[in-house]
Amino acid sequence: MTVQDWVDGYGQAWRDKDPEAAAALFTEDATYRDHPTGEGYRGPDGVRTYWTNITAPQQDPDVRMGTPIVSADNRRAAVEFWARFLNDGQPVSVIGILFLRFADSGLCEELRETWNFEMGDHAPPADWGG
To answer: N or C: which end of the chain has fewer CB within 10 A?
Structure first.
């Protein structure tokens, strides 16, 4: 699995609100941190639990993933995301970056994310994601 394959799979799992597909992208000992000060979620089971809870109130997610910036050894990457959806009936936009570390298998060993949560439906600018 290439980094681009992983990013495509992550975006599709979010669009489909599919915790199983998301969990399948991570190693058994992976760490998923959705907040810098949080303990994070461990392994596919932790990812599955997080995704089940976080995507439950999201309706019709429009998720866009940018072009990843990848290290020479393909072990580290950063990628922007821009998601728009209804959250408990209210339009919201979540704009952020994933910082990723990969195992030789192409599965993610570590994910750290940073994001901004904005009320309203904010489209990305025309030059976003490159």
So the answer is: C
φ/ψ (deg, to 5) at 6 = -65, -50
Question: Domain 3-119 is of which CATH architecture?
Answer: Roll (3.10)
Question: What confidence score (pLDDT) does residue 37 get?
Answer: 87
What is the secondary structure of 72-122 as a DSSP string? TTSSEEEEEEEEEEEETTEEEEEEEEEEEEE-TTS-EEEEEEEEEEEES--
pLDDT at residue 130 is higher than 70: no
Average pLDDT over residues 21-28: 98
Tokens 């980094």 correspond to what residue? 3
- 83-118 burial, b at 16+ Cβ within 10 Å, e below that, comes to bbbebeeeebbbbeebebbbeeeebbbbbbbeeeee
